[in-house]
Amino acid sequence: MDWKWKTIIEPFKIKSVEPLGITTRAEREAALEQAHYNLFNIKADRVLIDMLTDSGTGAMSAAQWGGIMNGDESYAGARSYYNFEREIRSLTGFAEIIPVHQGRAAEKILFTVIGGKGRFIVSNSHFDTTRANVEFSGAEAMDFPVKEALDFGRPAPFKGNADVAAMERFIKEKGARNIPLCVMTVTNNSLGGQPVSMENLKAVRNLTAKYGIPMFLDCARFAENAYFIKQREKGYAQRPVKEIAKEMFELADGAWMSSKKDALVNIGGFLAMNNRDWSAKARQLLILTEGFNTYGGLAGRDLEAIAIGLREVLDENYLQYRIRSAAYLGEGLLKAGVPIINPPGGHGVYVNAKEFLPHIKPQNFPAQALACALYLEGGIRGVEIGTLMFGKRDRNGQYLPAPMELVRLAMPRRVYTQSHIDYVIEVFAWLARHKKQIRGLEVVEAPPILPHFTAKLRPAGKPQPAKV
What we know:
Order of helices and strands: HEHHEHEHEHEHEHHEEHHHEHHEEHEHEE
Low-confidence stretches: none
Number of domains: 2
CATH topology of the largest domain: Aspartate Aminotransferase, domain 2
Number of helices: 16
CATH architecture of the largest domain: 3-Layer(aba) Sandwich
CATH superfamily of the largest domain: Type I PLP-dependent aspartate aminotransferase-like (Major domain)
Structural class: alpha/beta
CATH class of the largest domain: Alpha Beta
Shape: globular
Number of strands: 14
Radius of gyration: 22 Å
Mean pLDDT: 95
Distance between the termini: 53 Å
C-alpha cells in the first residue's frame, strides 16, 4: 500500500468488539495494592489498554475463525495437523515439524535434549523463558549483542544483530564441543524488538558452520524481522517479504516459534528441524509432556488457525500498518520527553526507565516502578524488563542491577486503533511532567526462577522486613 497520509489506517474492518476495563484511579490504586505491585496479578477487566505482551493477545481474522470451525479434532492423524505441517514446511523448509502448545514448551523440550551442565548456548540475546529453560537444563545462556544495541538513544537499523567477533572468541575459549547450539532471536525481543539483518544472519551462519555448531532461529516474530530487512537492507526493497522470510530460514538448521506472535493466534507453537536424532528424542518428550505427535497439546482447531495465520502475517499491507503503528507510538513518546530504545522495534516500544527515573536506584526497580505508575495513572499495563526480570542476586540475596531498566509496551496484533495509542502517549506525557513523584519498590518475596511473574513487592521504605 502506497501510503502518504498522517492517519494510520488499519487494513481490516472490525467485526466484533469487547468492552475495555474502565476504572477510577482509586480503584486502580486498590488493585495495585491487592496485586502486590505486580502487574501480572492485575485482573484483565481492571486494565484499560493492555500492553503486557503481544503473545496470544491478538485478534484472529474471519478466515481463522472459519478454520476453527473446520478443525479436525481426531487424536491421531488429524487433517488439521497435516495442514499445519504443510504450511510450516513450505515456509521454513525443515523436514521435522513438531507441534507444541506454545514457544516455551519447544524450548523446554529442545534444551532437555541438547542442554546440560558444562554446556553453553550462544545467542544475539535470549528472551527470559529461553534463558530460564537453558539454565534449568544446567547449561548457560550467553548473549552477544552488538554494541549499538545498548546505546538505546542512538538510532541504528539492525540493533538486533549478534557480535560475531565476540561470539567467535567465546567459542574458541570454551570449545565448540561444549556449545551445542547458537540461537538467533528474530526480532530481538529482550533488546527492544530490534531486527537482525540478513547480512548478520549469514555471518553467524558462516561462523557456526566453521565450528560445526547448529544455528536455530527463535522465529516468534519472523515476519516483522523480514519486513524490516525489506525496509532497511540494501538489495531487499523489491523482494517479497515471504521470499525474505524463506531466505532467513534457509540459513538455519532449525527453529522454534511461539505462534502466539506472528502466526496471529491465541495459543500454539512448533519446533522444526532437520536433525532426525534430535527430533526423535524431542518427540519422545513431546508425547510425555505435551501430547501425541499430531497434536502436541493443541486442539485441531488451533492447528488450523496457525496454518492460516502464517499466510496472513506475510501480507505486506498488514506488516506496513503493524510496523508504522509501533513507530507512531515511539515518535509520540519521544516528543513527550520519554526516552525509548530508538528506533522503535517491531512489536512495541521499550521505554528507558533508568534514564527516565534517575532518582530510583536499580535495587528499587525503576522499570517496575514506572510500569506501576503507568497503570495507576492511566490503566495501561506494560511489563518490566530489568533488575526484577533478570533476577540475579548476590550471596546475601540482594538483587544485582541489570544492564537495562526497560518498560516494554507490547502491541497486541489487530486489537487497538490509533486513538488508543494517542491515549498512551498522553498518559506518558503526564508522567513525564510528574516523574519525580514516582517511588521505587522493594521485594517482599520472590522465587529464584522467573521472579517477575509472581514476585510480591511494596513501595520502598515501608517498615516490614523483606523476605526473599
